[in-house]
Amino acid sequence: MANTAGAGPKQTRRWVLIVDRIADRTITIGGVLVIAAVLLMMVFLVYEVTPLFRGGSLESASNYAFEGKPKETLGLSMDDYRTVAVGITRDGTILAWHARTGTALKAPSFDFGGKTVTAFAQTLDTTNAAFGFSDGSVRFGRIIFKNDLLPADPAPPDLKPLDSQDSTDGSAVFSVIPGKQIRKISVEVQLDEQVVVSETGSPIVALNYRLTDFGERPKRTFVALDSQGVASLNIAESKLNLFTRKVKTDVTKTILPALPAGAVVSQISVTEAGDQVYFAEKSGRIYRFATRDLNHPELVDTQDVLPTGVGLTALGFLVGDVSLVVGGSDGSLSIYFLLEKKGASSSDGLSLVQTRKLEPQIAAVTGFAAEARGKTFATADARGGVWVRHGTSQRTLLRLTAQQGVAPHGLVLAPRLNGLLLLGQGGQVNFWDIDIPHPEVSLHTLFGKVWYEGYPQPTYTWQSSAATDAFEPKLSLVPLIFGTLKGTFYSLLFAVPVALLAAIYTSEFLPQSARGKVKPVMEVMASIPSVVLGFVAALVLAPFVENWIGSVMLVFAIVPLSLVLAAYLWQLLPPSLALRLHGLTKFLLMFVVVGAALWLAYQAGPLFEKVFFNGNFQAWLNRDTGRPAPFLFILILPLMAVAVSLAASRVFGQRFSLYLRNFPPLYSAILDLLRWMALAAVIGGLSYILALFLEAMGVDPRGEVVSTYVQRNTFIVGFAMGFAVIPIIYTLAEDALNAVPDHLRAASLGCGATPWQTAMWIILPTAMSGVFSAIMIGMGRAVGETMIVVMSAGNTPLIDLNIFNGLRALSANIAVELPEAPKDGTLYRVLFLTGLVLFGMTFVINTVAELVRLRFRKRAMQL
């Protein structure tokens, strides 16, 4: 016997310990860096999104007064660069000054030929104006802010400095701009020929003017009211002669019906198209004329838009002529839309509906100025408060206060929404440099129902852009979140059963030799690029499904039934033959059965569509033909199958199994097959009876669960994305099932359980933590999938349960919209918010999934 008394304890080599420490530190550092990277990503998203909710900011403010007694100012205007401000007086004089300092500038004036201006109106851009005169005529004028770029060297001589950026020669302002250039801004005026409006020569007492600029053929729409109470709608179209350069104006004039006796008009509004005219009294009563047919104008409605005792102090349209802003003497401010309304008192079925009620000011609203390029507007109250608001988001973006004692007289917003000027009754001027980068965004517009212009009710809508400035951005993320969840749900509805059943079969029933060939093939499927799947789904699968929808629907019934029937028939084989064919041969025979089922579905598809949907599934969806009962039968059938199978198993399943043991294997297999066929007949019969009952009760899934068929729809997305998710769920679930200790299988089989019972009631619950993780990882893949959704979903941001309609997911929206989003613009930051929402959704889902997984794992460890 060898002497081992002197042998010492084994020692780990020093280099192994060093490598172990290095590996430990590397793994720790790597894990910390991964967590830090995720957190930094979230911090970056928050950083990009935060400016959306900051509202407006005041950059600088200036207060000054005109020298001497100022003339009465009818209207104000400002250039694009908030450099020069202009006031128009009653005699046509143009008062021009440097907006930030108040330095007066020389400017030409309108020559009215000694006529007295009795009415005045401006367009939303404030550079075009209409003047009504005491002789019943109207003339159009235009203020032109002329911009010239000059080299900075040499600079124009004898310039008087105004501030750090601007200087003047007395008539123009010179601003230093990047690129070693100087911007020269000067004021010019243009006055058109007069248009006779009042046939009796009565003075014009009220005007409203809108301009549609078609380049060489501008269209002017204006409403005039003379002192005799005669109101007329006038549409003037100007044509430029390209040879003589003379402008010819043709005027179409329509005399409106007389207003009710005693009506005293204080304000007028007209749409740009000239199809609606509004006359308002100080009491808040509005008379609406429908003028779409110029030959037959009609007073169609009289409506009070303010409570009794509250006077109307402000009235005007926002750009687009849909939102009518109404301000009251109590500081209230509301927005009205002209909409169809049941029970409307008007003859055309339309009525002014209050769709938005804004935060009231502390005093009567006496000033109103709308932005010409968006839905932002400013209001001034009698106490000098000036608020900047947005019509869609209903946010008060900025609250400003004029210098003490200033009674508002005129108010104008800079065209680029970066300046605001208030002119007081005594000539005092307040000018503010402002910054309002994202006025249309609020939590309400992003996640709440908004009543958009032209819509009959509040909705969740995403539509980020359009062709005109009158467009109202619709930035609701709810349709995108819904689309993400909808696509994920249908993809998992297809992928989870297929992947889990395949994993159970591979792990528990397939021989080890065949498993070694099948599993790697499934894992390779996970490497197929999603863009390839999206391409195939959009260009191959979508047209095929549209043309063979009946066959495709049959596949989901015939393939499972064929496999189940094949399993029962397999039991009829002699045991020796079944044992010889067991393994890879049996696995290949399954594919033969599936192929035969697909062929049968292909052949039976037209007949199925004819019997169930009168031969045209798309027409059936549109309710053009057919009854709802056949489709109700299809919907009820799988639910009834689950319910009846569970009930039968609980009531007589065990007794029937014990009863079959009294017969030889062949007879047992025949009886088992007959039992299954009887059960299938019961399921089919009960489903059909229930479908008829629901049809009699008036239940029709069309319009709710299913509706109009679109080629690229959620059904296609679910199938294509499910195909991408199946390999992931299958691989991870199969690994989890194989990790279950073999002694649990042996114990179950030893107690007399069948392999299927062992798999369903022992192996699957034990491996549930890993299986659940597999499903959650597959869900994460589906939530973040982009290319499949972009290419095959139709990209329609709708909230619609219809499986045959399209969708737009959060990830797809980023891919579609980001190339067109200006950097740091509203859409750009909203897309970052979309990414943050997607990040948050996956974070919450994964956190909940991990908690559930740990609970399953804790239960499994107790076995």
General description of the model:
The protein has 863 residues and is an alpha+beta fold. The strands form 8 sheets. Strands 6, 7, 8, 9, 10, 11, 12 and 13 form an 8-stranded antiparallel sheet that branches. Strands 1-32-31-30 form a 4-stranded antiparallel sheet, with no helix packed on it. Strands 2-3-4-5 form a 4-stranded antiparallel sheet, with no helix packed on it. β28 and β29 (396-401) form a beta hairpin. α4 (512-525) crosses α12 and α5 (530-547) crosses α6 (549-570). It is elongated, with a radius of gyration of 38 Å.
Mean pLDDT score: 88
What is the beta-strand fraction?
15-25%
* Structural class computed from helices and strand pairing: alpha+beta
| Tally of individual helices | 18
Instruction: Give the overall silhouette.
Output: elongated
The tally of strands reads 34
Over all CA atoms, what is the radius of gyration? 38 Å
Distance between the termini: 45 Å
Largest sheet: 8 strands, antiparallel
Query: Unreliable segments (pLDDT under 50, ≥5 consecutive)?
Result: none
- Helical percentage: 25-40%
Please provide a brief summary of the model.
With 863 residues, the protein is α+β, with helices and mostly antiparallel strands. The chain contains 18 helices and 34 strands. Strands 6, 7, 8, 9, 10, 11, 12 and 13 form an eight-stranded antiparallel beta sheet that branches. Strands 1-32-31-30 form a four-stranded antiparallel beta sheet, with no helix packed on it. The chain has a four-stranded antiparallel beta sheet with strand order 2-3-4-5, with no helix packed on it.
